[in-house]
Amino acid sequence: xxxxPEDGHGLPHNPFNAIVTPRPIGWISTRGANxxxxxxxxxxxxxVAYVPPQVMFASTGSKPDRDGTKDSVAQIRxxxxxxxxxxxxxxxxxxxxxxxxxxxxxxxxxxxELEKAPCETIDCARVAEAPAALECKLTQIVTLPGxxxxxxxxxxxxxxxxxxxxxxxxxxxxxxxPLTRLGYMDxxxxxxxxxxxxxxxx
Length: 202
Known about the structure:
Layout: H1 16-19, E1 23-24, E2 26-31, E3 37-42, E4 45-49, E5 54-59, H2 71-79, E6 81-86, H3 92-97, H4 108-111, E7 116-118, E8 125-127, E9 132-143, E10 150-161, E11 166-167, E12 170-171, H5 173-176, E13 179-181, E14 187-189
Antiparallel strand pairs: 1-13, 2-3, 2-6, 4-5, 5-10, 6-9, 7-8, 9-10, 11-12, 13-14
GO molecular function: FMN binding; oxidoreductase activity, acting on the CH-NH group of donors, NAD or NADP as acceptor
Organism: Roseovarius faecimaris
Pfam families: Flavin_Reduct
């Protein structure tokens, strides 16, 4: 099968997200200039650089009360900071709850019954139960083609890891059991891994 996106795929559901999979989930927490906290998951998320460490997430929708974007991007534009919380399998239901199209000003931490913890390098809350969290300073927001497509880039200024997930000097991904996004309404959990050495490595 081959199709051109502008012509449509002819399938009952769009296969694009299912092809680009699995995708890590960035659970983005922000605090607006008015002090309101927001928390929302984004599956167009990834790390993009080592030195300095940098991440990105893309927002692809909008809300009527947020001038063509969503709460997360609107609040990052106001304050210049955000935090990426890592979603473990144990937090899947709370993460899903925070994905709702709630009105601006709703505190998703409280709505999903999540405990807040303070960030160290930025004025923002983070998910206390998250296995890891990345405090970020905005570097740029890039507008993409499309009605409401923007990519937010940030430099990581602080890293939180829960001690129980550090095993043998490594962040133990299999103990975390990170949630990943597949296509459609489907998710998966990382439960196994294997290692390979690159050519030339001892």
